[in-house]
Amino acid sequence: MGITIGICVRNGAKYIMETLRALEGQTVRPDQVLVINDHSTDSTKNILKIFQSATKLGFSFHDINGKGLFDGRNHVLSLAKNEIVAFTDADCVPSSDWVEQIMRVFKEHPDVVGGTGSHPGLEEKNFVSKLHKWWFIVEGVKEAGYTQGVIGANCYFRKSALEEVGGWIHLEVGNAEDVYIAHKLTERGMKLWHDPRVQVAHHYATEWPDFLRKTYRSGYAITLMMREVGIRTFLYYYTMIIPVVALWLLAGVFALAAGKFQIGLALISSVLALTFLFNLRMFRTVSNTLPRWFTRWIIIWGYSAGILAGFMKRIKRHNE
User: Fold this and answer.
1) pLDDT, tens digit, 9 for 90 and up, residues 201-228
2) If DSSP states are collapsed to H, E and C, what string results for 256-293?
3) Which fold is adopted by the domain 3-205?
């Protein structure tokens, strides 16, 4: 059973050679490596040409012009020659046994159609990069076992399962493709697996502007995607309530500023306590919950703005 690796990139010149070298150094080499270059305006394409001329991998790259990550994933799916299709990103470095561990998961768990793994940070371990890592839910929920979601920078699937659900819809946004495909697979009763031994290290954001832009874009993309396909699961209502929670805290702050101390303290303490208990239910332990709860109070403002923008945008509903 062979494996195809897909990388969708836009302006990834800074790190993509590091990613490609990591694929060359795998203990089990991938049979096919596809890079989908989405209208890069930096030197990404030149780097890909240089790599293609020198590598012994079954490597090719293909240009799409501003189509977005959803279409990039579909492009990989259409070109994949193998039953296993895995994805990473151009700012990530798979561990040397990444492919080997993916193949192990499918061998040990023949009932699963896809999964995800761990995402340790690379050298940039400042406060912002730690927040970026703590943002992820899938990795924080459990160490290993069945899961309801995947993380796009480290995910793997059976091609036949992706084809059964029709791959990805056309949506010109830069993320939420992982949430979409996990939903499509699990709603059909298919099983996903999380295994921390399937490891991809990540160059997390290290600057506040970049990190906050990511929170806005994520809120926008996930909201727009769920509206486009008519998702009305727990995830939809969980997402829609996030701006309400943010306003709840702001109401408490305004009450304090207006001299309504009892009302303000009651609002602030209640929303902080309730959100902590909600996160504790997901992440199980106080030590695991505290940094992720704190992170969510950092990202809630940009994420809420993105959610509201995605909710207000006019859409044309995709037929399922």
Assistant:
1) 999 899 999 999 999 999 999 999 999 9
2) HHCCCHHHHHHHHHHHHHHHHHHHHHHHCCHHHHHHHH
3) Spore Coat Polysaccharide Biosynthesis Protein SpsA; Chain A (3.90.550)
